[in-house]
Amino acid sequence: MKMGTWNGPPLKPYNFDAKGINMANGALHPLMKMRNEMRKILLEMGFEEMPTNNFVESSFWNFDSLFQPQQHPARDAHDTFFLKKPASSTIEVTDYMNLVKKTHSEGGFGSIGWRYDWKQSEAEKPLLRTHTTAISSRMLYQLAQQKQFRPMKYFSIDRVFRNEAIDATHLAEFHQVEGLIADYGLTLGHLIGVISQFFQKIGIQRVSFKPAYNPYTEPSMEIFGWSEERQKWIEVGNSGVFRPEMLLPMGLPPNVQVIAWGLGLERPCMIATKCKDIRELFGPKVDINMVQNFRFVRYDKLKP
Amino acid sequence: MVFWLSLSHNCLWQCVFVWDDNTNTKVIEVQESQLVSRLGYEPLDNEKDQKTFQENFSKLCFEFGIELDEVTSEFDKVAREKGADVAKKLKASTSRLYKIELPERQFFFFFGLFLSKKKKRNFDIDIDIHIYIYVYMKIKKYEYVYFVYGCACVGEKANRYDLLSVEGLTKALRIFQEKEQLPSYQTYSPKDPVVMRVTAATKKIRPYVVCAILRDIEFSEESLQSFIDLQEKLHFNICRKRTLCAIGTHDLDTLAPPFLYDARAPNDIRFIALKEEKEMTAKELFEAYRTRDICSLREYLPIIEHSPVYPIIYDSKGVVLSMPPIINSEHSKITIKTKNVFIESTCTDLTKANIALNILVTAFSEYCKKKFVVEQVKVVFDKNESHDEKNNEPSHYVTPDFNSHVFTTSPSYVNQLLGTTFQVDHIVKLLQRMSLNVRVKENESEAIEVWAPPSRGDILHPVDIVEDVAIAHGYNNLEKRLPEHQTLGSEQPLNALSDKIRDCVALCGFTEVLNWTLISKQESYDFMRIPDLGKAVEVEHPKTHEFQICRTNLLPVLLHNNDDFVFARGEEGRKRRDPTSVSTLHGVLKTLHANIGKCSLPLHLFEVGDIVILDEEKAVKARNERRLCALTCSARQSGFEQIHGLLDRVMQQNSFEFLSQSELKEKHNNRWPCEGKNIYGTRQMYYSIVPSEKLTFFPHRQAAILVDGLVAGYFGVVHPLVLSNFGIYNVNNVMVSAIELNLEPFLSQPQIISFLLQSTHFYQFYDTILICLCHVSINLNVPFTFRAGFLVKKGDKRTANFFLYK
């Protein structure tokens, strides 16, 4: 400037067809970006986040409280990570536990029960939670302990564990998105309405429901979303109304229904990142370039 | 797939899993023409019709809760496996096959097999996929080989076994479409029924038998095949590979009732087995099956071969009907000309056998002259000593038994759950479409009695009935509603905080990675140069053997030897120091290893995630802790200052003030933590950095981070040995610096503040490993209390003294 060189001969024309210098940038992980968006949507819809920071859970909350019998195959070590250490846990709610025991072994609350010899030792076995519904169960129990029932909406997005051999489509841990609503007089129609609303917000405009089977919900529905790209219905989640055998022992009023749905976070993310191998998305084999170049997750763009 | 299970006292179990993919018994295949005619459509002439039919059928399946898997043909199947040429040569049929998948559960597992010799409970759990397991066991020179049993995956209520045959499936669909009424299945008991006598000897092996007769039946080639297929499917599913029950079907006209069900020594049994040419004893037969190259029956042999007596069924002339659960006799085999079919099902589980029998006879009673009528058979048990009054076992019964449990429900209950306004009549109609028997209770129009036909055994509770109403109405026809009550959304404070920290670190130029919680012990301890103090959560029988433990504590060893700074918070602080080792760092290092050649340096990576540590105080004996881990990887420079800068940035953003080492000492020597207020008007929060000596990091280029006087993390230049353990070699003079930090101290302002008790001379003198800890705990609202504790380890003797001041 001082030398006045700017006043000299004109600069060589700049090549605007070349790209600028790569900026040194930080980036958030695609899966977490997607989680953030879903969290935001659920918060907008009036859902309260559940405290899910406990990967270790007792069989009682993970299975028994959900009216899943102790001989249920889901409870076999082949699918669930049981723990060598800690070897046992304590069940802190004796009265409720006894009611659960009774509902399993003798029935009650309008149910004939599973009719077997319920064992506390089995319920005390600790495990890595297989679904975040274990937390939902804890939250619903707490809700039932309040003097006055208050309608609630809960959600969580966190890790769950399955004892799987890992391959391109399976991991031993993945993220589960779960939403549930506890209110007077909820119906299957409400569940369909809420799910449709939620999926619309994440860009799936058309959803359709297929009869399915879940151990702790009745009726149960598989959720299918219409994929414009692939011109077909693809499974996007699972849902249902919690069974009375699960809710009534907790002490929830009989006219309160709880509707819930869940979906995996990895699958929509794999579609968005066009990732064929889940290990390249989640885990140490992730491609840093992919993480850095992953675009905005913009569900707002998709609004009709 | 092979894996090892090691158990105590030197016995090794090797389990060999043979996964049989071909026996997916939840898929049934139907010829298109058969399907079309059975569902009552006009034959399809052109491709357009076919396409429309396929679309309609697929939609129907969806509504009904089953899935049209694919439309294929024999030709396609052969072509796929062996190539199109072979298919052409074989002249495989090109007629279209519909593969239909029945509802099933997603889980699969093994079922109480390994060590349990106890009698398995009769649970209402049924099997979908079958796994054959052989266990080889070696205990003190002796080898044992066990066949544990082809056990299986499960559909617990996915037991619409009535849909396993073309007959049952199309009938259910026709009823669903209201093209047909649910038939009224009836049993018929003649004055002088056929009798099956059961001897006491059978108690030793398969104690029960149930029987039925289908009279004046007319088979076609298709229906005979379907009859045999259904038996096989039932064997696979509900009969658990014939272990619970095994069905045998016979041409009644070749036999002379009454029948005798006995158990005899293998050498005393002689007959011509199905598809055999000559007469053989049971022993010879077993030998023959065992030595043949291909023998589908081999897998069933272990069910009875250990027994001194084998089950066997004779007629009154001593002709063998069958040797369950292995094989029928050639003599009584059913053919297309068979008019009267005698069905026997021997079993260990009477309930399951009855269900299987009911499904078989109800599906095929439509081919009888008297449609849907099944003749009953009387089963009489011989008396024996064990068969006294005490046990409630019946001395005789008549099968099949079509009585089923009646459930009562009401329209208001249905409407309340579905949000509908259905009238009684409409509900009745809907339930009838789901193949259920319905009756409106007399005088009481608000009560509906529902009972399942013998072909369905999956209704357990009135809720199940409501679901069937919803399915028949169509889930997608229900009116969409939204909950009326307003609720407030809110975040978990910990998640909100960690999101803020993630943003902060990413804005510093770091790229987020995401790693698994489960890791191997080797990576966690050996690679990080940390001793295993056994504080991690360990999993049992992982399928992927690198998954042994949940990632544990902060970077390298918060403690293990001589920490000369212990600003611990009493019990909690001690615990936090206890657990060993690594954390999120090893995962980030692994990610670095996978990317180091692919990305340009320097690389800045970070992860915010949970680690799991044992905690006796929690009900589940473990807890999570939120951690931040970040590293920089650059050539020719350590990046140590950058990591230090990141730490300062995170602290600054969290309103933590820096306190130098001398200030820290001063503060603690004065036995009083700083009292100043920060901008939020709360107690001032501070952090300090003191040198540390961890093997994971390079000497003198590492430090511990103290938050409010407590160790909350470490940072430093990662030791070259650690790098090479993770396969990050020092090719380009790559250097890595890393930080690991517990985020939970940031969460709430700490209620308790602790300080250091100068104790250096203490261990120098006594050569102690564990240190004295002392803390002041302050609850801001409550008059303050002072507690101090000494924990001293001296040789093997451990003494602990606690003082409490108030």
From TrEMBL, chain A:
Protein name as it appears in the record: phenylalanine--tRNA ligase
EC numbers on record: 6.1.1.20
Domain Aminoacyl-transfer RNA synthetases class-II family profile, first and last residues per copy: 33-284
InterPro entries listed in its UniProt record: aa-tRNA-synth_II, aa-tRNA-synth_II/BPL/LPL, Phe-tRNA-synth_IIc_asu, Phenylalanyl-tRNA_Synthase
Record flagged with keyword Protein biosynthesis: yes
Cellular component, GO annotation: cytosol; phenylalanine-tRNA ligase complex
Cofactor(s) demanded: Mg(2+)
Principal localisation: cytoplasm
Alphabetical UniProt keywords: Aminoacyl-tRNA synthetase, ATP-binding, Cytoplasm, Ligase, Magnesium, Metal-binding, Nucleotide-binding, Protein biosynthesis
Subcellular location, record wording: Cytoplasm
PANTHER family recorded: PHENYLALANINE--TRNA LIGASE ALPHA SUBUNIT, PHENYLALANYL-TRNA SYNTHETASE
Enzyme class: ligase
UniProtKB/TrEMBL annotation, chain B:
Domain of life of the organism encoding this protein: Eukaryota
Sorted UniProt keywords: Aminoacyl-tRNA synthetase, ATP-binding, Cytoplasm, Ligase, Magnesium, Metal-binding, Nucleotide-binding, Protein biosynthesis, Signal
Gene3D superfamilies in the cross-refs: 3.30.56.10, Bira Bifunctional Protein, Domain 2, Phenylalanyl-trna Synthetase, Chain B, domain 3
Pfam families: B3_4, B5, PhetRS_B1, tRNA_synthFbeta
Entry's Gene Ontology molecular function annotations: ATP binding; magnesium ion binding; phenylalanine-tRNA ligase activity; RNA binding
Gene Ontology BP annotations: phenylalanyl-tRNA aminoacylation
All copies of domain B5, residue ranges: 402-480
Cofactor(s) needed by this chain: Mg(2+)
Cellular component aspect of the GO annotation: phenylalanine-tRNA ligase complex
UniProt-listed InterPro entries: aa-tRNA-synth_II/BPL/LPL, B3/B4_tRNA-bd, DNA-bd_dom_put_sf, Phe-tRNA-ligase_IIc_bsu, Phe-tRNA-synth_IIc_bsu_arc_euk, Phe-tRNA_synthase-like_B3/B4, PheRS_beta_core, PhetRS_B1
Region forming the signal peptide: 1-18
Keyword Ribonucleoprotein included in the entry's annotation: no
EC code(s) of this entry: 6.1.1.20
Localization in the cell: Cytoplasm
UniProt KW Cell wall biogenesis/degradation keyword: no
Enzyme class: ligase
Family from the record: Belongs to the phenylalanyl-tRNA synthetase beta subunit family. Type 2 subfamily.
Protein name per its UniProtKB record: phenylalanine--tRNA ligase
Organism: Reticulomyxa filosa
